Amino acid sequence: MILKYLKRAFSIALGILVVVVGFTSCKNTNEDDKSTDLSSSQISSTISSVSSSTTSELPPPPTTPEKEYPATDNGENIDMDSVENLKVCIVTPNKYSAWPMLGRVKDKLVCLYTVADQHSATEAGIYMKTSTTKGLSWTCGKEIFLDKTGVKGITGTGNDSEGNMLIWYRDGSPGAWQTTHELYKTDGHSVVLVSAPDFALRGGHIGNIFSFDGKLFAFYNTYGNTRSWGVLKSVDDGLTWEQIPIETDIPKAECPVEIDGFYAGDGKILALGRKDADEGTIAMFQIQSTDFGESWSKEYTNITDALGSSPSIIFDADTKDITLYFFARTIGQLKHREVNFIDVWNNPQNWSGSKVIISEKARGQDTGNVKTVAVDDIHFATYYAGSSTTTGVYGIIIKD
User: Fold this and answer.
1) With 60 as the cut, is the pLDDT of residue 390 above it?
2) CATH number at residue 395
3) Residue 175 has what pLDDT?
4) What local confidence, expressed as pLDDT, does residue 149 receive?
5) Could you tell me if 169 and 177 are in contact, meaning their C-beta atoms sit under 8 angstroms apart?
6) Cβ atoms 98, 370 nearer than 8 A
7) Which 8-state DSSP code applies to residue 239?
8) What is the DSSP letter of 23?
9) What is the sign, positive or negative, of the torsion defined by CA atoms of 364, 40, 116, 164?
10) Distance, CA of 46 to chain centre
């Protein structure tokens, strides 16, 4: 009996030691790094369409997988059958670690995030962590873009036809608001340039990539008092892109922002975009196409608790179920709504009520930016939360 308790005590101590070693060994990777955000920049832009670029193959993955460290409070195994929503810490809040972007490489979760000294900074250190345990443990942060000058950020992710994760990378000069957008791909180990399209966005945002019929699609928008939005399309796995404007030079209150969408089959595309101005209504936008993206409609939804909050959508192509996630920054709550596609298609006032997943004490611009993916029987959501100088990146394992 004594031996049994000694083994138990040793196991717990070892688990705690693993966590301490994991956080300690990763701690210095975030030193002296800075970050920025363009979501509220005062910019206007016109739209044009052109693109071209180059690509290279990813090197083979390492023969020895990177070590993962527990993201929970202890190193013990967790029985997810007894847990509904589990919060984990992906990046310890010792800097301004924020704007996590989430994606997948097969069954591997990939989280990209920036590290700063405050919310409004002029440099960005961009890091990557991966998880093969549905978010229960993560590798140490790896800096993937070494040049820290300028205004940088990851704005959207997706996957190519080979399953590599695609990354939209935005770069610019502080104060000038002239930005470039480059597409990279990663296997969760290294990052390789795919293309550098010549988009006329001037600080704009390019969202997540979705695909159908061998084509890649992504929505874009610009910022400022006068804005534009549209679609980007590629027929060659991201090597070249066509920029297709939908609405140009419209008032801020009428422009959907940071749009997230999906293909539902039969030529139908559905997307949601956040509302950035409290004029007329604060409801989120619903965007639809019935002809594979050739023409579009835009209407307001009955989602009125998400002003300034970006949507993140998971669509189940088998059941046609839609789960909408968003972080209500003004009250510090991660929320979701669940509907079936048929319930809201051509009926944007029929979204279900919101349910709170988790609440944070931190509110405002220093908390939010939810991104989600589905892995087997769970949804995984990331967001950041903290103060004006110190934030952490967190994940929620949500049972589907």
Assistant:
1) yes
2) 2.120.10.10
3) 56
4) 60
5) no
6) no
7) S
8) H
9) positive
10) 26
Residue-wise pLDDT tens digits, 66-86: 888 888 765 456 666 667 789
Domain of residue 62 covers 2-399
Residue bearing tokens 């790094």: 33
Looking up tokens 């961009």 gives 126
Phi and psi of 128, rounded to 5°?
A: -135, 135
d(CA 307, CA 282): 6
145-149, 192-196, 261-265, 316-320: segment of lowest average pLDDT = 145-149
Residues 27-63: tens digit of each pLDDT? 444 433 333 333 333 222 333 334 444 556 787 777 7
H or E, element range at 371 = strand 368-375
Residue pointed to by tokens 């804005």: 227
For residues 130 and 180, the answer to whether their CB atoms sit within 8 Å is no
Taking all residues of the chain, what is their mean pLDDT, rounded to a whole number? 83
pLDDT at residue 174 in the model: 55
> Tokens 């989430």 sit at which residue?
102
String of b and e for 113-138 (b: at least 16 CB within 10 Å)?
bbbbebbebbbbbbbbbbbbbbbbbb
Q: How far apart are CA 261 and CA 244, in angstroms?
A: 16
SS3 content of the chain, % helix, strand, coil (to 5): 10, 45, 40
DSSP string, 327-360: EETTTTEEEEEEEEHHHHTT-TT-PPPPEEEEE-
pLDDT tens, residue by residue, 320-346: 999 999 999 889 999 999 999 999 999
**What's the total number of domains in the chain?**
1
Cβ 154 vs Cβ 171: under 8 Å? no
Q: Find tokens 């079936």 and name the residue.
A: 340
Q: Chain-centre distance of CA 161, in angstroms?
A: 20
